[in-house]
Amino acid sequence: MNVHVMHLNESLRRGGVERILVDLANATSADGHRVSTCLLEDGRDLANELRPEIQLWVLARRKRFEREAMKQFGSIVTEQKVDLLHVHGRSTYAFAALARTLGFITIPILLHDHYGQIETDASVPWWFRLWGHRYVDRYVGVYGKLADWAVRAGVPRARTCVIGNAIDLERVRDTRSASLRSEFGFAEAERIGIVVCGLRREKGIPQLLEALSKLSGRHAVKILVVGGERETGHVAACKAKAFSLGLNDLIHFTGERADVPALIRGADFALLPSLSESGPLVLIEYMAGGLPFVATLVGDIAHRVDKLGGSQFVPPRDPAAFAEALDRLLSLAPDDWRARREASQRLAFDHFDVRQTMPRWYRMYRESLRLIHA
């Protein structure tokens, strides 16, 4: 198989979906296939991480379903002789499905579903149930619950598949550690924890703050919350809650950062308090960086790591259980702490490297092409 695969997404702003796109596109190109990327909006934070041979297109879209943008998209697909469209996310898929309905494109569409709120919202949008499901030539969910959702939404079971998230782990492992104590003025004796997420309600930062307020108090720790605001007013609400709980000196909100792998490498441990996830991708990054962690048991990756015996998981929305697990982690003897770090990194490289998933992706591409040409 030698095909031209085009990845389609809203943007390449920093985020888990965008990271998956970049790492998949790079791995596919490295295997000798032609790969390009098309964005609906002009956000290119991660664009410079694409391999140089991967061409990038940005549509001049001014509103969600704009006929001129679809026409431009169709012209690019035709002129560049794209064989297959790898679409990331349901919103982006709506654009591609309508473009195919109107005849601007005729190539097969693979829908790669990363929907992170599946554990709290399993509803099916009316447009997908009514007509959208008809143009899904192959559906790949990153979590088993997403594949079940697709079948309920009208996609034939035979066209669905689950391929869990995986990334280029060497990007994290080979990054030089940031000097967090120097940058933030932390004491040498303080252990530094990190939380990486887009700040919105389902990421569970208010619940994390409650957990931190319940720690035994004998630990010298600092927590960095790294990520930009995704819901208006949420950061201010989290900071107000931290103040009310007396955590101002313990927790630091850094905002969006371009050096997340370096921050992970510079931290001592990681936290993931999410209420709902499909991945979560950042859990792989924590492990690749050799960080022991405490996390809620949500999403495909968390369940897989839990079965493999990795680190400590607790139920979502249970600050007391989270605090107890963090107390246990922070109480580990130095040898046990080092063993936890080594085990975490070993799990990542044994089970979550993007290279391990490529044979399954190529099979999905072949099946998509066969279906449209049948």
Keywords:
374 residues; alpha/beta; Rossmann fold; 42% helix
Describe the structure.
- This protein has helices at 16-30, 67-79, 90-101, 126-130, 144-152, 170-173, 180-184, 205-213, 234-244, 260-266, 281-288, 300-307, 319-330, 334-351, 354-373; strands spanning 4-9, 34-39, 55-58, 84-88, 109-113, 138-141, 160-162, 191-196, 221-226, 251-255, 269-272, 293-296, 312-314.
- With 374 residues, it is α/β, with parallel strands linked by helices.
- A 7-stranded parallel beta sheet has the order 3-2-1-4-5-6-7, with helices on both faces. A 6-stranded parallel beta sheet has the order 10-9-8-11-12-13, with helices on both faces.
- Strand 4 (84-88), helix 3 (90-101) and strand 5 (109-113) form a beta-alpha-beta unit.
- The longest helix has 20 residues, at 354-373.
- The chain starts with a strand and ends with a helix.
Topology record:
Layout: E1 4-9, H1 16-30, E2 34-39, E3 55-58, H2 67-79, E4 84-88, H3 90-101, E5 109-113, H4 126-130, E6 138-141, H5 144-152, E7 160-162, H6 170-173, H7 180-184, E8 191-196, H8 205-213, E9 221-226, H9 234-244, E10 251-255, H10 260-266, E11 269-272, H11 281-288, E12 293-296, H12 300-307, E13 312-314, H13 319-330, H14 334-351, H15 354-373
Parallel strand pairs: 1-2, 1-4, 2-3, 4-5, 5-6, 6-7, 8-9, 8-11, 9-10, 11-12, 12-13
Using the coordinates shown, work out and report the CATH topology of the largest domain: Rossmann fold
H and E string = EHEEHEHEHEHEHHEHEHEHEHEHEHHH
Name the CATH architecture of the largest domain. Answer: 3-Layer(aba) Sandwich
Q: Helical proportion? A: 40-55%
